[in-house]
Design brief:
The protein is of the alpha/beta class and 332 residues long. The protein is 29% helix and 17% strand. The protein has a single domain, classed as Aldolase class I (TIM Barrel, Alpha-Beta Barrel), CATH 3.20.20. It has a 13-stranded mixed sheet with strand order 7-8-9-6-5-4-3-2-1-10-11-12-13. α1 crosses α9 and α3 (100-110) packs parallel to α5 (136-148).
């Protein structure tokens, strides 16, 4: 399944909920947001149907996201149903880790291949300041549970948001020295039009890392899976990943589609364009009609983003979908 620019689209990110148990400052306001009603979001059966259609069109990698996917009950059953779909080679899940202590073994048994855990500092006070919740011990217990479960990969994501401090993400990087995990530093993305002037770039972070840990050597790359570039530090059990989402965008290599919790197939992380599948799912459309609509929509996937939200690409003809208004609705 290729778009108009010849990019092979085979990676689907599925937001199963917009709800979250944390209130990270770079993601949502302290008061939270008005959550979608149960009727507004796709049922598990509807999600599985869309994934099955997309798998027939060429999708072979799926990642469950949120919000926080583990706040939705029974997500392990959804995972099992998705992993049972022919052609799905990899199923991942991105989480803040707080509920992983009780869920890791269930997810592994359901067929989840890898988990990405979001941790932005190892300082408990700073963690509470960033997430507005005192939950670092639970998140670290979640990491331990993930390492004990038979996942093929465990990664830790750390965002270089404007108020993050070098000691925050340097502490998180130390996890890769102690454990066989990949710690990825991700440039913050201004999803609601914020200024990025105060945000640390990946290049700036890289220089600081080398001052602390010495010269980094290029490491084995995960070909075809994602945009991270990996590096190895001396005596580290894991790798250091860098995702330059803003300073060196990787749109020419984009392989992703995103299914929002409310059933919109989103073509670009920044742009609110795509196709609303929920009306078709609930209006009696056949699988063939859904597949045809999806194939028509991906012809209009943008060549690249402009680093800021855009309702409709200039000259584009794709439908305007539900405004995402922040990362919590699409899970990155």
């Amino acid at each position: 399944m290729n778009d108009a620019y010849g990019r092979r689209l085979h990676y689907l990110r599925v937001s199963v909920t917009d709800r979250c148990n944390l209130r990270c400052r770079y993601c949502m306001p302290e008061s939270g947001v008005v959550s979608f009603s149960h009727e507004d979001i796709l049922s598990y059966d509807e999600i599985v149907r869309v994934v099955r259609i997309l798998a027939n069109l060429g999708v072979d990698r799926v990642r469950l996201t949120g919000g926080e996917p583990l706040v939705r009950k029974g997500v392990q059953y959804l995972a099992a149903d998705i992993k049972a779909i022919p052609n799905i080679r990899f199923l991942g899940l991105t989480t803040n880790g707080v509920y992983l202590p009780e869920m890791a073994s269930k997810l592994a048994a359901a067929g989840v291949d890898g988990v990405n855990i979001s941790i932005d500092t190892l300082d408990r006070k700073r963690y509470e300041e960033i997430t507005r919740r005192d939950a670092l011990p639970q998140a670290l217990d979640g990491l331990s549970a993930a390492l004990k479960a038979p996942f093929s990969s465990v990664k830790v994501n750390c965002v270089l948001f404007p108020r993050s401090l070098p000691e925050d993400w340097l502490s998180v990087i130390s996890l890769a020295k102690k454990y066989p995990v990949d710690v990825r530093l991700i440039e913050w993305m201004p999803m609601t039009g914020e200024s990025i002037e105060d945000a640390v770039t990946a290049d700036e972070a890289f220089e600081i890392i080398e001052k602390v840990y010495g010269v980094l050597q290029p490491a084995r790359q995960n070909v075809g899976a994602g945009p991270a570039r990996y590096w190895q530090a001396s005596d580290f059990k894991g790798r250091i990943g860098i995702i330059q989402a803003m300073s060196h965008n990787f749109c020419n290599e984009c392989n992703r589609l995103r299914l929002t919790a409310t059933g919109d197939l989103k073509l670009c992380l920044f742009y609110d364009i795509g196709i609303a599948l929920k009306p078709m799912l609930r209006g009696g459309a056949s699988d063939e009609q859904l597949a045809e609509a999806i194939l028509e929509a991906i012809k209009h996937k943008p060549r690249q983003h402009a680093g800021k939200p855009m309702v409709l690409e200039e000259g584009g003809i794709c439908s305007v979908i539900e405004p995402t208004s922040g990362m919590h609705k699409i899970g990155g």
